[in-house]
Amino acid sequence: xxxxxxxxxxxxxxxxGAAPFPxxxxxxxxxWRIGYLSxxxxxxxxxxxxxxxxxxxxxxxxxxxSFVMEQRYSEGRNERLSALATELVGLKTNVLVxxxxxxxxxxxKATSTIPIVMTVTADPxxxxxxxxxxxxxxxxxxLSDIHSVLVTKRLELLxxxxxxxxxxxxxMNADSPTLLRQLRxxxxxxxxxxxxxxxxxxxxADDIERAFATMKKERLGGILVLGDPxxxxxxxxxxxxxxxxxxxxVFTVKENAEAGGLMAYGTNFADLWRRAATYVDKIxxxxxxxxxxxxxxxxxxxxxxxxxxxxIGVTIPRSVLLRADRVIE
Length: 329
Hints:
CATH architecture of the largest domain: 3-Layer(aba) Sandwich
Strand content: 15-25%
Oligomer: single chain
Largest sheet: 7 strands, mixed
CATH superfamily of the largest domain: Response regulator
CATH topology of the largest domain: Rossmann fold
Radius of gyration: 24 Å
């Protein structure tokens, strides 16, 4: 190599040394701080949260070494979410992972700069969290649920199991705009199934007791329990009262059927939590949440609890059992 070539090679090496490394190289050895905000309880979320942790592990992250989690739960009390979101922002988290529309709204209000990944939110566009599913446009992205389609399917399942039902109750969180939209979808679908709908909005344990007293008084043929972190926090109470009053109930997540609910039909939430880890990974590698499309669920499941069916005197048609992903004997 002559003197000129040696000089040019030296300049090239110096230029390479001065050039910025990729984001992952720059962050070698960095411990990321991830905030988790839920409108439910740690007990309610434990299986789904474990799926998120597994998702992070599958992507090569080691909790305690490459990332740490800061978890905050409102225990079904939406009024606490704002303060909890502000607390997580104050901890200088790199990403916020949220469960539920109320938690997503609280986080979005607390920060417009920290990326927010939704584990599941029924209507992020309707809730004002994103401009569109294809291009969210802000600091919120993640996974959505298609409740507007699923709520009609749950009403269909209830009528298959209880054909005589002419009045159906809808147990729901009174403080959720998202659930109000779902209620309207159910009311719009009701005439096709020959039923009228009675809404039963609740805000806590006492309201749930009163709602079941109303169901008995109104002689309802069954109920749809709309999925919500607050409702899920009180799942044992809801399931217990439904069995005690011999009320056929269709829930949104399999955990409610596993806890003793008659049936559950909906999204596989553990799959959504696992997929949320891929969003966190992309963001930590430099992706802009505004450009990450919001994905919808791809896995659904129907769970039937035959023990509960026998306890409340309901016969599950063979047509339903054949479609079930799991039957609890």
